[in-house]
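We were asked to recover a plausible sequence for a given structure. The inputs and outputs are reproduced exactly as logged, with field labels preserved.

PROBLEM: sequence recovery
POSITIONS: 435
GIVEN STRUCTURE:
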């Protein structure tokens, strides 16, 4: 992929997205035509090859576009538990290996925000070691000797995000309409709010300080400290915290016992944010974590933090407790109290809720503990249940706040799957909902 400034024109970015969709559609049609008269295994091989080719196209286009378009691609990549393995591997590169810009393209931003960098930094690495949807990160050393990570927003990224929001609204609304009659407006409202929030690095710094306070008594979680004098709305400087990358952590060379420890830390981090603190790190992209061999996990990127309303947190807690007790027939009424119900106010049918509850209970079994990524039948059945739920969701209403909560839970499901983690999931959940 080339290293050039992303397009800022709404029309130009819409053209890129439209061209991507057209190329993907044309290749899918060609693949189907090529499969005519072939055996079932041969047709499946052609289908997989087409999916992989289109996944590479998606990564290349969104990686260069950056902005909200790339962020939506990252959200898709989080669902790798439901994707063919060959496709998941390709999309996963959106989580941590997108092309960065040369320092010369962002140094004006650095000088405009901080003044003379030489007054702050003793050294500054010209090559970014991480690049994401709205900014890239460089290693540096402060004049007092502290090693830091400096996140710099891409030039004009606010205009890029606004351009994407208009384009993505039209594209995503049409895509959702193809698979479901669910009301798209609450989903869009929540997505738009979170994407705009990520543009304010001072807001992110405040969230980091708050999360650090909340996890002061949790040694398993490491959160970088904000360097106040080198942080602005568009520049965020933090202490540099080392750890294994996701690929290193998930590799076959890493002991499974260590992966299980990390998996449990992530699961506990999720539950603590949702049910106790009601402040949820809502970007569970595995590239936002680093892993230490003593079992600790470093957490990065606090741009997307979801404040969970009290009613919703209590609702999730009540549902978990009710499901663990086997009182699945009570779940539709509990969902109604949370704001999830039919348009006319009726609770959801038990037939729509029960398959999900059964699958979750299988994940939370006590003996033997469930190992993610090994029993593929659960992931397959979850995918089937999701498609069935979408088809039935035409007259379902839900509070917008659950959009990023459910996204975070699903993302961590994918993280645990990559780690192939096994652990006392039920016992850990019961600590938060009562035994």
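RECOVERED SEQUENCE:
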């Amino acid at each position: 992929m080339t290293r050039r400034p992303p397009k800022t024109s709404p029309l130009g970015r819409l053209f890129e997205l439209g061209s991507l969709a057209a190329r993907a559609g044309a290749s899918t049609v060609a693949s189907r035509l090529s499969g005519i008269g072939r055996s079932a295994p041969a047709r499946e091989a052609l289908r997989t090859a087409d999916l992989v080719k289109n996944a590479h196209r998606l990564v290349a286009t969104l990686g260069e576009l950056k902005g909200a378009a790339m962020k939506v691609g990252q959200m898709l990549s989080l669902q790798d538990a439901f994707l063919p393995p060959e496709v998941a591997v390709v999309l996963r590169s959106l989580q941590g290996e997108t092309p960065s810009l040369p320092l010369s393209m962002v140094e004006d931003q650095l000088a405009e925000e901080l003044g003379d960098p030489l007054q702050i930094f003793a050294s500054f690495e010209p090559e970014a070691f991480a690049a994401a949807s709205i900014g890239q990160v460089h290693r540096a050393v402060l004049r007092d000797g502290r090693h830091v990570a400096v996140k710099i927003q891409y030039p004009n990224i606010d205009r890029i995000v606004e351009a994407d929001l208009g384009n993505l609204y039209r594209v995503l609304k049409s895509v959702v309409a193809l698979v479901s009659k669910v009301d798209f407006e609450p989903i869009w409202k929540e997505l738009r709010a979170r994407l705009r929030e990520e543009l304010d690095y001072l807001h992110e710094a405040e969230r980091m300080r708050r999360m650090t306070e909340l996890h002061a008594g949790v040694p398993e979680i490491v959160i970088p400290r904000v360097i106040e004098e080198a942080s602005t709305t568009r520049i965020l400087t933090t202490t540099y915290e080392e750890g294994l990358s996701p690929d290193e952590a998930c590799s076959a060379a890493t002991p499974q016992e260590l992966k299980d420890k990390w998996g449990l830390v992530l699961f506990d981090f999720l539950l603590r944010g949702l049910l106790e603190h009601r402040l949820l790190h809502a970007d569970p992209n595995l590239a936002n974590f680093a892993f230490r061999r003593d079992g600790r996990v470093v957490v990065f990127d606090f741009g997307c933090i979801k404040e969970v309303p009290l009613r919703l947190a209590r609702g999730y807690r009540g549902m978990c407790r009710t499901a663990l007790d086997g009182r699945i027939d009570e779940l539709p009424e509990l969902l109604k109290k949370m704001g999830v119900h039919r348009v006319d106010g009726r609770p959801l049918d038990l037939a729509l809720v029960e398959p999900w509850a059964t699958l979750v209970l299988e994940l939370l079994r006590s003996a033997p503990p469930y190992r993610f990524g090994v029993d593929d039948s659960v992931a397959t059945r979850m995918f089937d249940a999701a498609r069935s739920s979408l088809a039935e969701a035409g007259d379902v209403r839900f509070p917008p706040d659950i959009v990023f909560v459910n996204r975070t839970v699903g993302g961590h499901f994918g993280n645990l799957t990559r780690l192939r983690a096994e652990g006392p999931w039920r016992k850990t959940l019961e600590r938060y909902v009562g035994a």
